[in-house]
Amino acid sequence: MYEELLKRIQRLEYHHRLLLQFVDENRAPFTRLIVEKKLDEEEVKRFQGLCDSMNNKMEEQKAEGFLYFYPLFQEFTSRLNPKLEAKETVIACLKEKIFPDLMEEFSKYVGD
After folding, report:
1. Nearest-CA neighbor of 24 among 40, 35, 39?
2. Tens of pLDDT along 46-76?
3. One matching Pfam family, short form (predicted)?
């Protein structure tokens, strides 16, 4: 029983690696990042909630006349899932047009 489960898991992981080769990094870089970093559905939902929250805060701050959003970026990085790195996440989201205004602002702080 245990050996059979282990074999099935190993086969699924192998198929996972094979299928990952078909995800075009240029067309769906964030989707690929989700798979590479093995994020589950709940983790992706939390990421989307984080971005939604950060986007709302940025819009509120813009309305108040803020022009500098580094503190918001710091909050984003501190709350980002530890499986993700800020720079690769921001770049992937920009390419896939996920929260584009927010990620465009955050791209100023991720470095080269």
Report:
1. 35
2. 999 999 999 999 999 999 999 999 999 999 9
3. DUF1878
